[in-house]
C-alpha cells in the first residue's frame, strides 16, 4: 500500500515540482558533493548485483570512480573539503551506475526464476 | 505475408537431393529476405532453422578485419527483448542445439530442434537479427573466446596452411583470414555493431530450414522481427570478385619436427570436389592404399598426403597438403608434384571414373546430413548452385580435360617449416 502511494507521488509532476527545491537542499546538506563524489559512488558495493554492475562500467568510468573515491577518502582523513568550485555540480551528479544495477538485478531475478521453476509437460 | 511470397527459384525443385526427403523450395518475403526450406522425411519430427547472413570474412576491409569472427561469436547474445541467459535456458528446455559458424562467405546461426519448436526459434533468430545489443561487457567476454579460437587456429599447422592458401591465391576478399588476429582493429562492441548493421540488409539475409514447409516458414519469418530488416541506404558490404593471383607463403616454423606444404590449383567451383577426388589421396579402403598414385607414394615413402577442395560463389580451389618430417619434405613435395603433373593431369579414364564415383558418394552423403542440407539450401537461397548429383554428372564428362588444364596451371604454395629444407614452387615444374 505504502509503495503504491510512494509511486503515485513520485509520478505526480506537481508533487515533484514542490519537492525539487527541498530535494536539492537536502542533497547539498548531505555533503558528498563537497568531497567531489557522485550519488552512485555511495551505493553499497558489497553485493553480487552491484559488483557485477561495476564490472560492466567501461575503463574510463571505473578510473573516474576510483579517483573520486580516493580523493574523498583523503579529504575525509584530513578533515577537509574541496574548494567550492570543485564541488560536484548538480548537472554532473548523474546516475551512471543505477541503470546497470537495474539491468543486472533483472538478470539475477530471471536467473532465480529459471532456477526455481517447474516444467509442465503438455 | 503468405500471399506476398513468390517463388524465385522454381528450377531448384527439379534438382535431385539424394536421400533427404522432399525437394527444396526457395521463396522471398515482402522485404526481400530469402526463405529456403526442405521438408524432412515424413516419419521424422526433426527440424533445423538457420539465419544465414552473407557477410563472411571475404567482406572485411582493413578497417574491420576480424569483424566477421566477432559477429559469429555474438550469436545468441543479449537482445533488446531477451537475455542470452533466457535464450540458452529455453533452448535447453526444448532440447535444442544452438550453433554458430563462420565461413569465408556466410555467417550462419543454426538451431536444431523439433518441428513444434520452430516458430519459437524463428522468433529468436529474428530478435538476433534486429536487436542484438552488442554491449561492451559482452564484447570483453567474447573477445576472450575469439582470441582463443584464433590462437588455436594459429597453432594448428593445417588450419594455418589452408588460411595461407587462400591468402596467397586471392590476396584480399576471399584471401582474408577466417580468424580475428590479435592486431584486429575491432576492439569494441560498437565496431561489431557497425559491421552487423551493414551486413543485416534484407538482401544479404536468408532463413534456411530443414524439416519445415517453406510457405509456413515464410509466414513465420514475416511475423518475426526479420520483417523489420530493409535494404536501407546504410553502406553495404562489398567484396572484390575473387581473382586467382598465384603466389607463395613461406611460414618459418622451427619448433615442430614435421613440415607441411600445401599446393592449390584454381578451378571452377563446381568441379573442385571432383578434382580433389581425382588427386585421390584420401584413403577410402581401410587395408590398402588403393590404386591412387599419390596415396601409394605416401604409403611407400611414409609421409602424409591429403587432398582438399573449396567451392565459393565465384572461385574454387583444389589441392593437396603434404606433411612429412622436416628432412624429407623437399623430396616428398617434388615427388608429389611430379605425380600431379604426370599421372593426375593426364588421368586414365578409369581414374576419372573412380573420382566421379567417389564424388557422387561424397555429395549424396553430405546432402543426407542436416549440415549438408543447410549448406546446399544457403547456396540456393543466395542464387548459387549447390553441389548435387546432377552437377557432378555434368562435370564428369569433361573432367579429364578440366584436370589437364587445371593441373598444368601455376599453383599457389604454402610452406610451414624451415626455409632451408622446403621446396620452392618455381622449382616444381608447373
UniProtKB/TrEMBL annotation, chain A:
Membrane topology classification: Peripheral membrane protein
Q: Does the keyword Electron transport apply?
A: yes
Its localization reads: Mitochondrion inner membrane
Q: Which InterPro entries match?
A: QCR7 (IPR003197), QCR7_sf (IPR036544)
Q: Does the keyword Ion transport apply?
A: no
Q: Which UniProt keywords apply?
A: Electron transport, Membrane, Mitochondrion, Mitochondrion inner membrane, Respiratory chain, Transport
Signal peptide range in chain numbering: none
Highest taxon in the source lineage: Eukaryota
What are the GO cellular component annotations?
mitochondrial inner membrane; respiratory chain complex III
**GO biological process, any:** mitochondrial electron transport, ubiquinol to cytochrome c
Family per similarity comment:
Belongs to the UQCRB/QCR7 family.
**Protein name, UniProt field:** Complex III subunit 7
Automatic annotation (TrEMBL), chain B:
Matching InterPro entries, A to Z? Answer: Metalloenz_LuxS/M16, MPP/UQCRC_Complex, Pept_M16_N, Peptidase_M16_C
Q: Does the keyword Glycoprotein apply?
A: no
SUPFAM superfamilies listed in its UniProt record: LuxS/MPP-like metallohydrolase
Enumerate the spans annotated as Peptidase M16 C-terminal domain. 188-355
Which keywords fit this entry according to its UniProt record? Electron transport, Membrane, Mitochondrion, Mitochondrion inner membrane, Respiratory chain, Transit peptide, Transport
Annotated coiled-coil segments of the chain = none
Q: Name one GO molecular function term.
A: metal ion binding
Classification via Pfam families = Peptidase_M16, Peptidase_M16_C
Return the GO cellular component terms, semicolon-separated: mitochondrial inner membrane
The membrane topology noted for this protein in its Swiss-Prot or TrEMBL record is:
Peripheral membrane protein
- Where located? Mitochondrion inner membrane
**Sequence ranges assigned to domain Peptidase M16 N-terminal in this UniProt record:** 45-179
Q: Which family does it belong to?
A: Belongs to the peptidase M16 family. UQCRC2/QCR2 subfamily.
Q: How is this protein named in the record?
A: Cytochrome b-c1 complex subunit 2, mitochondrial
Amino acid at each position: 500500500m505504502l509503495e503504491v502511494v510512494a509511486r503515485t507521488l513520485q509520478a505526480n509532476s506537481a508533487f515533484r515540482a514542490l519537492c525539487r527545491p527541498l530535494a536539492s537542499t537536502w542533497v547539498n546538506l548531505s555533503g558528498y558533493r563537497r568531497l567531489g563524489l557522485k550519488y552512485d559512488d555511495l551505493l553499497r558495493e558489497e553485493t553480487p548485483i552491484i559488483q557485477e554492475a561495476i564490472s560492466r562500467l567501461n575503463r574510463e568510468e571505473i578510473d573516474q570512480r576510483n579517483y573520486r573515491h580516493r580523493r574523498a577518502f583523503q579529504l575525509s582523513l584530513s578533515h577537509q573539503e574541496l574548494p567550492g568550485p570543485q564541488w560536484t555540480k548538480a548537472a554532473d551528479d548523474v546516475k551512471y551506475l543505477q541503470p546497470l544495477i537495474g539491468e543486472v538485478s533483472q538478470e539475477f531475478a530471471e536467473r532465480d526464476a529459471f532456477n526455481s521453476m517447474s516444467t509442465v509437460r503438455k | 505475408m503468405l500471399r506476398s511470397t513468390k517463388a524465385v527459384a522454381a528450377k531448384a525443385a527439379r534438382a535431385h537431393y539424394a536421400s533427404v526427403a522432399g525437394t527444396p523450395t526457395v521463396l522471398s518475403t515482402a522485404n526481400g529476405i530469402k526463405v529456403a526450406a526442405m521438408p524432412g522425411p515424413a516419419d521424422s519430427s526433426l527440424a533445423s532453422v538457420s539465419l544465414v547472413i552473407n557477410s563472411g570474412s571475404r567482406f572485411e576491409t582493413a578497417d574491420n578485419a576480424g569483424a566477421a569472427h566477432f559477429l559469429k561469436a555474438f550469436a545468441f547474445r543479449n537482445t533488446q527483448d531477451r537475455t542470452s541467459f533466457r535464450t540458452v535456458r529455453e533452448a535447453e528446455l526444448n532440447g535444442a542445439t544452438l550453433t554458430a559458424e563462420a565461413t569465408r562467405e556466410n555467417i550462419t546461426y543454426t538451431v536444431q530442434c523439433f518441428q513444434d519448436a520452430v516458430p519459437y526459434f524463428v522468433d529468436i533468430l529474428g530478435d538476433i537479427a534486429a536487436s542484438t545489443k552488442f554491449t561492451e561487457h559482452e564484447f570483453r567476454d567474447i573477445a576472450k573466446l575469439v582470441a582463443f579460437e584464433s590462437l588455436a587456429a594459429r597453432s594448428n599447422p593445417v588450419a594455418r596452411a589452408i588460411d595461407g592458401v587462400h591468402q596467397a591465391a586471392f590476396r584480399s576478399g576471399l584471401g582474408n583470414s577466417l580468424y580475428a588476429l590479435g592486431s584486429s582493429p575491432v576492439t569494441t562492441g560498437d565496431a561489431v555493431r557497425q559491421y552487423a548493421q551493414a551486413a543485416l540488409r534484407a538482401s544479404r539475409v536468408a532463413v534456411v530450414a530443414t524439416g519445415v514447409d517453406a510457405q509456413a516458414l515464410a509466414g513465420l519469418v514475416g511475423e518475426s522481427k526479420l520483417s523489420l530488416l530493409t535494404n536501407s541506404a546504410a553502406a553495404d558490404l562489398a567484396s572484390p570478385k575473387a581473382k586467382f593471383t598465384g603466389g607463395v607463403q613461406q611460414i618459418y616454423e622451427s619448433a615442430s619436427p614435421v613440415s607441411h606444404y600445401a599446393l592449390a590449383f584454381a578451378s571452377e567451383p563446381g568441379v573442385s570436389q571432383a578434382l580433389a577426388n581425382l588427386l585421390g589421396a584420401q584413403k577410402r579402403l581401410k587395408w590398402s592404399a588403393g590404386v591412387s598414385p599419390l596415396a601409394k607414394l605416401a604409403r611407400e615413402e611414409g609421409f602424409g598426403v591429403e587432398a582438399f577442395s573449396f567451392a565459393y560463389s565465384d572461385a574454387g580451389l583444389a589441392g593437396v597438403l603434404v606433411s612429412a618430417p622436416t628432412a624429407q619434405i623437399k623430396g616428398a613435395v617434388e615427388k608429389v608434384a611430379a605425380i600431379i603433373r604426370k599421372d593426375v593431369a593426364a588421368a586414365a579414364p578409369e581414374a576419372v571414373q573412380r573420382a566421379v564415383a567417389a564424388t557422387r558418394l561424397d555429395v549424396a552423403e553430405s546432402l543426407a546430413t542436416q549440415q549438408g542440407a543447410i549448406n546446399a539450401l544457403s547456396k540456393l537461397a543466395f542464387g548459387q548452385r549447390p553441389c548435387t548429383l546432377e552437377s557432378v554428372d555434368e562435370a564428369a564428362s569433361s573432367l579429364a580435360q578440366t584436370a589437364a588444364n587445371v593441373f598444368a596451371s601455376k599453383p599457389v604454395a604454402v610452406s610451414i617449416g624451415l626455409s632451408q629444407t622446403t621446396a620452392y614452387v618455381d622449382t616444381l615444374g608447373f
